């Protein structure tokens, strides 16, 4: 069981369920076209791993999006995970402010993102209601913020571990299962705490190890506690941009706004996620506008 994946599991004796995510090629391809400074690359790796375990815990047909906005040197970062396992992400940042920031002071969130919020969105299409959860950026890490969200908004005890290096990103998330009505509350509490302690014993290098398969890692943690591992879900980097999507977007603009986009007689659109460049000359722009005019008249 190798490659980029999210692996579900349940530990009956500890009364918990969880997800383990590893992203190697996905992390590399997500970042390779952006030349982010090292602190931001680490933050993006953690965000990608967090998005993977959060999306892996949900049943949806569409798109899960993790978005963070703040008033620090990094003003926004986005990672989305499609229900088929396709992932992509990007960040906006002020290179000057980032170069002089102290990301280590107070943790990466205060140092890089400042004050702001973390949002989770599930979008299953135009005929469905979008689900969104929002939590302030409180704590030193993305894991702190996500744990705060589950505790406050979902009343769900959750523990999350994130790790990243220049090759891989990983995440382990465990959540407490409902306590059976006939269970002893104190025993159930002790079981959950034992599960958290065992998860906390995991070292970052183990979470990212290329030679330690994900099921083996979980076995090391929970083999004495009734571990059950589910089927893995593959993950991969795949951008959804295309010439057809860009043309459809350009058709939505009135002609005077298209004219404002011209540089040397052409419109150039660069995908923020993958860096793909789409260029349209005068004839193509006229054709797009003519298509839009016909649609508006019909």
Quick summary:
The chain is an alpha+beta fold.
Provide a descriptive summary of the structure in words.
By secondary structure, this protein is α+β, with helices and mostly antiparallel strands. Helices cover 37% and strands 28% of the residues. It has 11 helices and 14 strands. Strands 1, 2, 8, 9, 10 and 11 form a 6-stranded antiparallel sheet that branches. The longest helix has 19 residues. The C terminus is likely disordered.
Portion in beta strands: 25-35%
Dominant shape = elongated
CATH T-level topology of the largest domain = Hsp33 domain
SSE series: EEHHEEEHHEEHEEHHHEEEHHEEH
Structural class: alpha+beta
Q: DSSP helix count?
A: 11
From the alpha-carbon coordinates, what is the Rg to the nearest angstrom? Answer: 22 Å
Low-confidence stretches: 291-298
Mean pLDDT metric: 91
Task: Please name the fourth-level CATH homologous superfamily of the largest domain.
Answer: Hsp33 domain
Q: How widely separated are the two ends?
A: 54 Å
Q: How many independent structural domains?
A: 2
